[in-house]
Amino acid sequence: MPAAAHANWPVERTPERSIHVTRRAIKLGMTRFGIDAQVAIRIATEQLRVPNTDQLVAPNRLRSDALKILYCAVRKGTMRQDEAHRILDGVTTTRIRLLGDRVSRTEAWKIAEHLGWDDTAQAEYVAVAKLQAEVFVTLDLGLARKVDGIVPVASFDAVFAQHHS
User: Fold this and answer.
1) What integer pLDDT is reported at residue 114 of this predicted model?
2) pLDDT above 70 covers what percent of the chain?
3) I need a labelling partner for 108 at 20 to 30 A (CA). Which of 54, 58, 122, 125 fits?
4) What is the band of 162 on the pLDDT scale with cuts at 50, 70, 90?
């Protein structure tokens, strides 16, 4: 489905309705999911297998953001270094289409400006999801609320529950 079709989707305002959008997307064979670094880390942590029929998309910065999150967790003492390296390897080997083209960067700028954000980091994830995916999956509920209406949002469990190995 072209990105422009997202504009015609109803605004999904509750987790329950967002889950409905995800199931509708899966039923129709639309299986491109925009994910953020936290989602990539959870996929790797839970050692989930993403079927070949599904595609994960994210901005180029995803692996660097995952590295930063895991490094900070080790520094804070909330995660062992060997565990962080195992998870980072999982993120690296997970099949994720990473994008950073001019159109995505321009869209990220517009989204950050529209939402009054001080930088474009989170907007890059939203932009890639808006342009290249049917739904955006994030573990950050605050972010999900902020971008609801810009891009359809789904919960991790709604999308990945059936993929547990």
Assistant:
1) 97
2) 79
3) 54
4) low
DSSP the chain: --GGGGGGSPP--SHHHHHHHHHHHHHTT--EEEE-HHHHHHHHHTT----TT-EEEEETTHHHHHHHHHHHHHHHTSS-HHHHHHHHHHHHHS-EEEE--HHHHHHHHHHHHHHT-SSSHHHHHHHHHHHH-SEEE-S-HHHHHHHBTTB-EE-HHHHHGGG--
Q: Is the pLDDT of residue 19 over 80?
A: no
Instruction: Give the tens place of pLDDT for each residue, 64-86.
Output: 999 999 999 999 999 999 999 99
Residue tagged 């605004």 (tokens): 11
Q: In degrees, to the nearest 5, what angle opens at C-alpha 33 toward C-alphas 145 and 91? A: 100
CB 143 within 8 A of CB 6: no
> What is the Cα–Cα distance from 153 to 143, expressed in whole angstroms?
10
Q: Are the C-beta atoms of 48 and 164 separated by less than 8 Å?
A: yes
Q: Which amino acid is present at 85?
A: H
From the list 132, 137, 130, 128, the residue with the least C-alpha distance to 151 is 130
Do residues 38 and 140 lie in contact, with contact meaning Cβ atoms separated by under 8 Å? yes
